[in-house]
Amino acid sequence: xxxxxxxxxxxxxxxxxxxxxxxxxxxxxxxxxxxxxxxxxxxxxxxxxxxxxxxxxxxxxxxxxxxxxxxxxxxxxxxxxxxxxxxxxxxxxxxxxx
Length: 98
What we know:
Shape: globular
């Protein structure tokens, strides 16, 4: 098989935050999107992010947590509540680990 046969453009995957604690606070499951494939630099940034420095990881999440059109959910003016950010980070890590 040729590598060109398995190389495809990334597709958006929906991730649902349906943990009981999230649903009880926000009234329903929350959803966001992440590309099914990431550039190698993203994995490098994750590997080099200092685990003790939450800001490093949170800044990286800005590039990964997207809406249904592939736009960033967070920017300089829009931030997620801390409980939601922590849960999205867990889901992103789970997704990237597959």
